[in-house]
Amino acid sequence: MTNNLSQHMGRAAVIDDLLKTSPIPNLMDRISGLDQPGGDPRLKQIVGRVVGDLFKTIEEFDVTPAEFWSAVSYLTALGQSNEGGLLAAGLGFEHFLDLRFDEKERQAGLAGGTPRTIEGPLWLADAPMEKGSARLDQDPEVGEVLFMHGQVRDTDGNPVPHAIVDVWHANTKGGYSFFDTSQSPYNLRRQIETDAEGRYRFRSILPAGYGCPPDGPTQALLTAIGRHGNRPAHVHFFVSAPGYRKLTTQINIAGDEYLHDDFAFATRDELIPGVTRNEDPDAMRENGLNGPFTEIQFDFAIHRETASVPDTVVVRDHAKAA
Ligand SMILES: [Fe+2]
Questions:
Q1: Which residues pair with 150 in a beta bridge?
Q2: Dist. CA 69 → ligand 1 center (Å)
Q3: 175: CA distance to ligand 1 center in Å?
C-alpha cells in the first residue's frame, strides 16, 4: 500500500468513525431520508452518497468553515447567473455523460455512427423549419460566407430522407442569438429537413470561438484552478428522424487555436471536417458573391432505434423564445 493510499484509507476510516459516533443517531440515514417511508428511494440513495462523499472531502482536505461557506456562496451565484449548464460542461460532466452513452452503445454492438458530442447550454427550441436548404444568417453581419452541405445516412449507408438537421452556431463575436440580445431571434439557427436523397445544405457565416462570460462564476472557478474557459469555433447539430436514434453533435472549424484545447472537452477527431476556401471568381459569381467563401462537406451517419440501449433524447431545461 502506498503512503498516500494508506493516509487516504486512514482518513476515510476517521470520517466513518466520526459519523458513527455522532450524538445524532443514524445521522446519514436521517440526512438522506432513508429512515422515512416517503420520498423517492433512488434519490435517497444518491443524496446519501453525494453528501457522504462531500463529508469525506471536507475531512480529507480539512476544509475550513470559511472555505465551506465560500463554496455555498459560489453555488448561489452560479444559480443566480444561470451558468449551471456552462459549469457542467467545463467540469467535464457533459462529456462524461457522452462517454457513458458511447460505452453503452459499444456494449450493445452499435458501431459506425457519427460520434456524438456535447449539446451545451445554448440551443433554442423551435427554430424556423426549411426544406432541403436554408440560409442561417438573417442579421446584416459581415463575415466570411460559409456553405455547408452533406447527406444524412443510416449506418448501412442508406440515405435518410426527411431527417431534421437542427443547426445552431455563434456569430463572428462568439455570441448566440436569443442569449445575445443584440442579434435577432433565431439568427444562425434553423431546422433543415433533408430532401429525398437525405441531403441538406445551408449558407451562413463562419462562427468564431468564444469564452465563458469573463465576470461569471464559471470563469471565476476556472481561473482559480489555472484553466482557461475558451471553446474553439464550432457548429452544433441535432440530427433526428423517426425510427432513428437522435444524434447530438458538433463540427469544429479546423485551424482554431483551441481546436484540441476546448474547455468543454467536446472536440473529437472525426468531427473536424476539411475546410475549403474557395477563391475561384466563377464560383463566387455562381453563388452571388463578390469575395472568397468557405465550404464544408459533412455527412452524418445515424443509428436505427434500438431498444437495448438508453434513448439519446436528453431531457433537460431548454430556452424557448416567447
Ligand atoms: Fe456552442
A1: 200
A2: 32
A3: 9
The stretch 142-157 carries a mean pLDDT of 96
Output the CA 242–ligand 1 centroid distance in Å: 26
Distance 122 CA to ligand 1 centre (A): 7
DSSP 8-37: HHHHHHHHHHHHHT-SSTTHHHHHTTTTSS
In degrees, rounded to 5, the angle at the alpha carbon of residue 303 between the alpha carbons of residues 297 and 305 is: 145
pLDDT tier for residue 1 given thresholds of 50, 70 and 90: very low
- In which element (H, E) is residue 204 found? strand 199-205
- For residue 185, the SS3 value is coil
Q: Say how many Å lie between the CA of residue 71 and the centre of ligand 1.
A: 27
Topology classification of domain 109-302: Protocatechuate 3,4-Dioxygenase, subunit A (2.60.130)
- Contact in structure between 120 and 264 (CB atoms under 8 Å): yes
DSSP class of residue 271 equals: G
Q: Per the confidence metrics, is the pTM higher than 0.90?
A: yes
233 C-alpha vs ligand 1 centroid, how far in Å?
Answer: 8
- Residue 267's φ and ψ, nearest 5 degrees, are -70, 135
How far, in Å, from the CA of 229 to the mean position of ligand 1? 12
Phi/psi class of residue 308: alpha, beta or left (left: φ > 0; alpha: ψ in -120 to 50)?
alpha
Question: Ligand 1: distance of its center to the CA of 301 in Å?
Answer: 21
Residue-level pLDDT at 142: 86
Distance in Å, CA 105 to ligand 1 centroid:
25
